[in-house]
Amino acid sequence: MCGRYATTRSNADLSSFFEAVDVAEPLRASWNVAPTDPVPLIRTSKQHEGRVLDTARWGLVPHWAPDLRGGARMINARAETVATLRSFASSFAKRRCLVPADGWFEWVRDGKQKQAFYMTPGDGRPLAFAGLWSAWGPESVLTTSVITTAALGGLTRVHDRMPLILPADRWDDWLAGGGDPERLLRPLPESDLEAIEIRAIGPEVGNVRNNGPELLEPRSEVTLF
């Protein structure tokens, strides 16, 4: 699963990179995003006739849910079931989005200890996670979920799941709605995933109260098996 990630770009940077109109709240850089935190997303808007940069609560809450409390358990949607599971099917068909990220975190157990790793593009460009969004309640609170798929290549060394990452040439089809689920949900080729750096980092990221660029500093003394 993807339970923590980093997203530190400004409204101006993200709206430019994704060629989107900025309708989001002012974004605060976060090096340690946790469930229910506000996060940026890219979705389509009929009003703006194209992509918009917006803000949502991480943890999708379907419109029929009685309250927002279940969102903390809905931060991820599995690619294998997202098109058919009641909680996600409607959003998958009509309300897909891109979730910008700098990278994501996973933990590997080594005996009694857990080692944290940060996965991030080697070229420093933003990632676009495949996501879903929904509007809940009379105030239309936006909520979102990140789609995960089976890990491939070297990423299997840190976890058996990874976020579904979408390259720029697939953004329009993803945001359009409809389409063939098998085609839309295909993962990046392993050759493309080789550009993802797997970086050992310190244990401080495990505490959600810690949030700063120092969390991403590599620990050179740690090797990945």
Describe, in plain words, how this protein is organized in 3D.
The chain is mainly β. Helix content is 13%, strand content 36%. The protein has helices at 11-17, 86-94, 171-176, 181-184, 190-193, and strands at residues 5-7, 21-22, 30-33, 38-45, 50-58, 76-78, 96-101, 103-110, 113-121, 127-136, 141-150, 161-163, 196-201. Strands 2, 4, 5, 6, 7, 10, 11 and 12 form an 8-stranded mixed β-sheet that branches. The protein has a 5-stranded antiparallel β-sheet with strand order 3-1-8-9-13, with no helix packed on it. The chain is globular. The two termini are 21 Å apart. The model has no long low-confidence stretch (mean pLDDT 94).
Q: Give the low-pLDDT segments.
A: none
Q: Helical element count?
A: 5
Broad structural category: mainly beta
Average pLDDT = 94
Gyration radius, to the nearest Å? 17 Å
Number of strand elements = 13
Main sheet: strands, sense, barrel: 8 strands, mixed
How large is the share of residues in beta strands?
Answer: 35-45%
Q: Share of helix among residues?
A: 10-25%
Q: Give the CA-CA distance, first to last residue.
A: 21 Å
- Which of globular, elongated, flat, extended, rod-shaped describes the shape? globular
Order of helices and strands: EHEEEEEHEEEEEEHHHE
